[in-house]
């Protein structure tokens, strides 16, 4: 937790005004007190490095930047506006915090750990269909939207799609970097894009090109990062690290490169048994043991504490049982390019098509059978089972609902359980 940045926040009149407005909203809830509000703020800040960008503070990429209309949307996205505090600490939301939308499954790369491999059957949603879906997502209260693929920059209408969102959501584009020219980055920024996440796994160009299955992948990533920064976008390096490649010195080399390029954040992703990796369940050195995951978390926290690098984040930390837990179908959800609703990017369970029924209706159905956030990654828990019982994936809705009911948990991750005390 960087004390200097916190001091800057709490002496900012805009921040004070926004916090006071949240305090007044939550005061309507009899379970709330200012002491509990302060406790919640301290829990959110735990282990985080705050980044100031474009007049806003990025506390955690699990949440929208603050202060913003998107953060307001995040706070209010509960069923009962007179029980905002209670419903937040019990994760009783009327929309997930974030939705990832795969606007295309087309991609020129052939990544060895692609989670979207095999989802390219059927027609992509049209521009107008996506616009309708985006409006529904925002009306529900979704405060963070990730526009992903495939390679989303292959959509000729990508600028129009980004421009379809209003300020109620913070929008981040996930890309390989190929096609992100400075002109394109500036146009996307003008359309309202907040940030860009660009895939870069290592400082070794040959290794990055090999794992991404594209000869110039490294150069395109570096160029995309530079163009994103120069356009004034919040810039994230997204790196996938296999367990056998988990090495502190090599990660610190990547952090040094990120620092040199003035990147705002490095997000470390561990491989998930999904897509291309569904058939590699027995391969050693790919998926993380609990010890390796703990080491990854320690590396991230160490890097943030030393203060000389950009913000370092890991889902291993954010989605651990010690923090917010796995939010598949509760805090986070995913829509394929054909409009099929999944609990998350990595869980191939089909809960209906958003081109045929409203997102809100389908999400509520899914959310009810999934229950509360889980203490471990749902994809890693359930996907081996799905592979055994299904001839093809995604699993159909009826079977998906039945399995999700079986997998409900009663114990909340620690962020929520701590706030409930």
From TrEMBL:
Coiled coil: none annotated. Pfam families: Radical_SAM, SPASM. Keywords: Iron, Iron-sulfur, Metal-binding, S-adenosyl-L-methionine. SMART domains: Elp3. One of its GO terms (molecular function) is metal ion binding. InterPro entries: 4Fe4S-binding_SPASM_dom, Aldolase_TIM, Elp3/MiaA/NifB-like_rSAM, Radical_SAM_PqqE_MftC-like, rSAM, rSAM_sf. GO terms for biological process: heme biosynthetic process. Residues 93-310 form the Radical SAM core domain. PANTHER family: PQQA PEPTIDE CYCLASE, RADICAL SAM DOMAIN PROTEIN. This is Radical SAM protein. The lineage of its organism: Bacteria, Bacillati, Bacillota, Clostridia, Eubacteriales.
